[in-house]
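Justification of resources, computational component.

The compute hours requested in this renewal are based largely on the per-chain cost of generating structure records like the one below. Each record pairs the submitted sequence with a full structure-token output. That output is archived, and it is also reused by downstream analysis tasks.
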Amino acid sequence: MKIAVLIKQVPGSESALPIDSEGYWVDESSVTFVMNPPDNYALEEALLIKESNDDVEVVIVSMGPLRVQKVIREALAKGADRGIHILEQDITEKDPLVIAKRLSNAIKSEEFDLVLTGLQSDDTGMGQTGVLIGEILKMSTATLAVETIIQEDHIRIKRELESGWFQWVQLSLPASISIQSGLNTPRYPSLKGIMGAKKKEIHSLSATELSKEETLQKVNNVFVPQTNKQTEIIKGDIDQIVSRIIEILRTDIKVI
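The structure output for this chain reads:
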């Protein structure tokens, strides 16, 4: 069995996030980058499957600039077998569909039995990659998995639904599964694992060669929200109050 684990490198939760001079994205020179925490659970689930089954290979797949190899090495130190790095030279892609197509083109020749992804990334939080890859590669797809059971040529998934409900589904392999955060306890790399990771293979691919499609979703501006406190007492009959609330929501708060 071959398992691909998609991992993203994101700014750490305690890192400073200064906006660059153009207001397009954060100034990455001042940012401390870490492995995306939800992806850590997907990695641990893959390693647990490897430990419970014979002849399982875990491959780490990550896209980004050269610094991304740090989190690939971290995953290799925890027990993954090899890595695939999709190298982005300039601006990192933020369109979920373009990202999914690049990842799909990078892994389709590997014929993975399982593709595991975290719930979402801590930076953009799109939560679409696993589902899109499943559709592109014609795989069975499930989200919010809180338990996985491998059974010959299929996998049973326990999915977390709303209001405390759960759902068991059975999927044929190959399958793309998005892992819910908290279903396991991610391990730390051992000293032996860290030393061994230096010898493991990381194969590099060019992001632009994998997909040259036009980006349809872009981030035009990033800014720090300005906060202020203002209280308005609305008087009048019910119609006047409702009209004023709608006006505030539409013109001042701009949520409708």
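The longest strand covers residues 140-151. The chain has a mean pLDDT of 89.
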